Amino acid sequence: MLTALAKSPTGIAGFDDLTFGGLPAGRPSLICGAAGCGKTLFATTFLVNGATQFDEPGVFMSFEERAEDLAANVASLGYDLDGLVAAGKLAIDHVRVERSEIEETGEYDLEGLFIRLGFAVDSIGAKRVVLDTIETLFAGFTDPSLLRAELRRLFGWIKDRGLTAIITGERGEGQLTRQGLEEYVSDCVVLLDNRVEDQITTRRLRVVKYRGSAHGTNEYPFLIDHAGISVLPVTSADLDYEVPGGIISSGIAGLDAMLGPGGFYRGSSILISGEAGTGKTMLTASVIDAACRRGERCMAFAFEESSAQIVRNARSIGLDLAGHVAGGLLRFEAARPSLFGLETHLARMHRDLDQFRPDVVVIDPISALRGSTSELQATLLRMIDLIKTRGITAVFTTLRGDGSLVQENDLGVSSLMDAWVKLQNMEANGERTRTLYVIKARGMSHSNQVREFLMSSNGIRLVDAYIGPAGVLTGTARMVQEAREMAETQRRLHETERRIREVARRRSAIERQMEELRASLEATEDEEEHLRVEDGLREADRAKERQELTARRSAAE
């Protein structure tokens, strides 16, 4: 049966993830790097988190900084070393090592250190130890064999006492440390690097070795700021993240109507691209406002405008983002792209997402980030993956200077997006109008029409597509064409009404003629009947006369 290596969590965000639990428990670990890379702060955080989070008291033995200096240096991070010392959870001991004194007293070994360190450990029941820095401690050793023996003896003493130790060391020439021995006898070696490229500093961390345990082998960016140390671990390498269900509204009724389900899929990545002045930021503001109105948490990373400026500008289209900020549903993180390196921006985003846990994230714009093409693409890929694995709906904006569909510096981002909305300025008749159309929306039917959209104090409104004789018309060209077609429609209506009236007149004339003919026919029929009656009367009179004549003739005879 396999037994997992016991580990002591450092409490440093991200580091415990890439080491699968922390540093090896009961063993020494070496933290090495050049000056200013954060070795002492890393070690201090390890001790403070152990005392406050894991109930493991610790001893900090410094060979350079005095206790009061160390406490003052980390106070800005919220570390109360004096309070931990008073509570018996932390012991700080400054050991002054002077080369001149060593030469006066001759060669020395570490027996005195063991006694002093052992007393500090026993006094508070320490489980963790930090030795900062080891170069100062071994400054008096000139014999390499003696140095190696004492170093092994020190590490053996730490293991025998079952102490989880961090030993810091300065970076050497062509090797990890100056002596070149510490990395071989340490069970875990972590290399810190403070790199400057194009006048931008980026801190990186790499686990060089870890005996008995798997670990992340890449370089990982890490942050040192007011929130302490945080490390960006590797993102998911497999496309096996869960897909959240449901549809979210963009806050713009016309845009939702262009999408089959009536909005975007929750957890999708949405790209809004366009030229300067097309309304990308205001479109994302509508998405944020709609999400906050639903009670969802939103975070906006801005690289070109301050949060106050975005809030002010959003008021022009009737959006009160300040109310969402005050209500705790919206948080802005605004920073110039040149303030940090790409990896640092990514690390800050990782930490902020874990702290705030938003439902919707806006990054405005990704085109502001600076770096080589390979670095930009790698950073954006990890950024998208970072958000997708958390099931967060993300809206990215990017500036497209030439208005084309495909651009050389696209970096392959558009192919990673689930939906792509393109904004474009159209110029005609001496004016500029804004248009919008959906290039793609994975998994849903969507309109392929170009729509004009208007921004006013009532928000963003999409205008129905208007197709004129020369194609899609916008702005005053649309109004002129509408007026022209309305006039033509009125003319046709007037012509139709005239023809209807003409037909009515002709109908009336025909009907009058029909009435006259009907009256004439009736008169003819009456006259015919009258003649027939008269003819009958005459016939009757003749018959009577014949009867009377016959009667007179009979009487005469």
TrEMBL record:
It comes from the Bacteria. PROSITE patterns: KAIC (PS51146). Residues 519-557 are annotated as: Disordered. Residues 6-245, 246-476 form the KaiC domain. Keywords: Hydrolase, Kinase, Phosphoprotein, Repeat, Transferase. One of its GO terms (molecular function) is ATP binding. The keyword ATP-binding does not apply. It is an enzyme of class 2 (transferase). Its EC number is 2.7.11.1. Residues 529-557 have a biased composition (Basic and acidic residues). NCBIfam families: PRK09302.1. This is non-specific serine/threonine protein kinase. It comes from Methylobacterium tardum.
